[in-house]
Amino acid sequence: MARTEPTLQLEQVGQVDPPSKPEEPLSEQQPENSVTWVFASATARIWGHTIDGLLTMLLFITLLSLSKLVEGGSDYADWVVIGIPMAYYLFCDALPQGQSLGKKVFNISVVSENGGHYCSLTQSFLRNLIVPFLGVFDAVFILSKKRKRLGDYLAQTVVIKKAAKGKIGVNSSR
Fold first, then answer.
1. Residue 48 has pLDDT above 80, yes or no
2. Most C-beta atoms within 10 A of its C-beta, which of 96, 105, 143, 152?
3. Using alpha carbons only, what angle is made at residue 127 by residues 109 and 95, rounded to the nearest 5 degrees?
């Protein structure tokens, strides 16, 4: 069964869709199909990612310790010890509301830049796959104006702030 996610209402701060348009000032009346957002801070993104990395390591160490307690463990135990933490790390941004556990702590969320849907499994996989290979080089990109790292460009995602009461970037001043 296909997973359907609600379309999010996002605050009018940031980039106007489509991204290929030249930069223009935001107006009060945006086209209905445009999606804009409030970017998550670089600090929140870095700390959220750090928490997810620590959780992945803790999960790995816990599973490794448990596998050592079981005498005569099967070869499948090795796959479980490696596979479960790897699966969390690769797919954590597709958890409910586009929030890994680290992102949830900092009240930020990953959404598709094309329509504002929460991050899908495929997008989460694409955005997190390159981190082990590019590491800090990839993270430097979140300091740019669009605050998108290379994984975000690959997966066509953006990390945004969540507003109060579970809504994403809804402007309460209107």
1. yes
2. 152
3. 45
